[in-house]
Amino acid sequence: MPRPRFLRADPAVQQAILDTAVDEFGTEGYDGASLNRILLAAGLSKGAFYYYFDDKADLAAAVLERELARYQFQDAELGNTRDEFWSTFELFARRGLDQLRAAPKSRDVIVRLGAAASRDPNLRERLAPLMSAGQVHLAAVWQRGQELGAVRKDLPQPTLIALAQGAKSTLGAAMLPSDRAATDAELETFTRVYIDLLRRMTQENPP
C-alpha cells in the first residue's frame, strides 16, 4: 500500500497520479504498465514517485483501493429461506457486474489488476490488506447462509471465505485474458461460472 505521506499529499497530486495510473493499468495491464509513462503523464519525477510509493505494486494497490471505494456494496438482506439466500446472492453478484459495465475505465483496471494478482504472488501479497477488508462482510454473508441452511455448516467461515477467494483467483487466471481488457461477454461468463462453482462447493446438501 502507498506510504502514509501519499495520503497527506495535495489531493490534486493524488488524483493526477491515480487517474494516470488507472489509464495505464487499464490499457496495458499490470505487467505491461510503464512507470515511466505514468510519471511523464502525471508530471512526476522518479524521486517524487518513490517518495510516495515503494514500487509499481504499491501504486497498483492504491489504484485498486480507490476504484473499489467507488462501489457501495451495502449489507444485503439475504432472505429468510435457503432458496432466497442463493437467489439474492446471485442478484447482488450480477448487480456488481452491472456497476462495472457502467464505468468502463474502472471496470478494466479492477479486472486487469485482479487477474494479474491471481498470477503474481508479489502483487497478491501487496493487495492482501485491501482484500482482507471485505472479509468481515463475507463472514456475515456466510453466517446468514448457514443460519438459513443454505450453506454447509461443516466448514468454518474462514474456510468458506478462503474457498470463495481461491475459486475466484483460479477462475480469473483461467478465464480472463492477461493481455487485454475482458469483454462484457467474458465477464458475464466468468460471473456465471463463478457463482455456479461457489454454490456447488458451499451449498448445504446440494441437489
In short:
This protein has 207 residues and is mainly α. Helix content is 74%, strand content 0%.
Write the layout of secondary structure elements.
Elements: H1 4-7, H2 11-32, H3 35-42, H4 46-52, H5 56-69, H6 82-101, H7 104-119, H8 121-132, H9 135-147, H10 157-175, H11 184-202
Helix pairs in contact: 2-3, 2-5, 2-7, 5-7, 5-8, 6-11, 7-8, 7-10, 9-10, 10-11
Our estimate of the beta-strand percent is under 5%
Helical region count?
A: 11
Q: Look at the structure and give the CATH class of the largest domain.
A: Mainly Alpha
Low-confidence stretches: none
Helix content: over 70%
CATH-derived topology of the largest domain: Tetracycline Repressor, domain 2
CATH architectural designation of the largest domain:
Orthogonal Bundle
Q: Cα-atom Rg, whole angstroms?
A: 18 Å
Number of separate structural domains = 2
Main β-sheet, in a few words? none
What does this 3D model show about the protein?
Helix content is 74%, strand content 0%. Helix 2 packs across helix 7 and helix 7 packs across helix 10 (157-175). With 207 residues, it is an all-alpha fold. The longest helix is centred in the N-terminal third of the chain and has 22 residues, at 11-32. It has helices at residues 4-7, 11-32, 35-42, 46-52, 56-69, 82-101, 104-119, 121-132, 135-147, 157-175, 184-202. The model has no long low-confidence stretch (mean pLDDT 87). It has 2 domains: 4-68, Homeodomain-like (Arc Repressor Mutant, subunit A), CATH 1.10.10.60; 72-202, Tetracycline Repressor, domain 2, CATH 1.10.357.
